[in-house]
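Changelog note: in this version the structure field was regenerated for every chain. One regenerated record is shown below for reference.
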Amino acid sequence: MKHIVRKVLEILGKHRTKEVHVLIDIDGVLDFEDLLVDDEVEAIHSLSGKWAIRKEVLDWLEQLSKEQKVKFHWFSTWGNESNIINSYIGISDFDVIEISKTKPVESKVEALGELIHSLSEKTVIVVDDLFASEHFDWYLTRSYDETKSMFNEWENIRRASIENLVEVHFIAPDSRVGLVKEEMKFINDVVESVKFEKE
């Protein structure tokens, strides 16, 4: 009997793969506003403009994308165009989560909820300056129905993360300087902690 129980646990364990999903935006995260930042920056031309991205961030993105337990998703209104960055640094394309250009906040919250509902026992890291508190303050001035709808979406995310055992981390970089070393280190530390969790 013990042998059967052990075998069942082994099979179940194979389905509970450790995995980190990183949802990453471009504007205000990789491409930042303050061009006076004294760092080595690379200009990557998109179909409708160009992005200024720190070389150290591109190097970090390239390295972390090689981790087997990490799955990146572009979380940007740039859509499939985001993968121009991947081509530039020579890595495979990331999955793209479609975001509405007209309602990015609502669209991102809804997409995050859908992803968390589809996962079980995973870790999610959302890297997006849109989740900084100042971006959400304007919701307090919206109509009651719109505000209530947003709070309901957040409650659904909270509930789904508990029910599905999904650990969620939010990183909201300062859009003037984009993703910085401390934030990259935090993401690396979360990935390492997931990699070395006991089965």
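Spot check on this record: The chain has seven helices and seven strands. Strands lie at 20-24, 41-46, 49-54, 70-74, 95-96, 123-127, 167-171.
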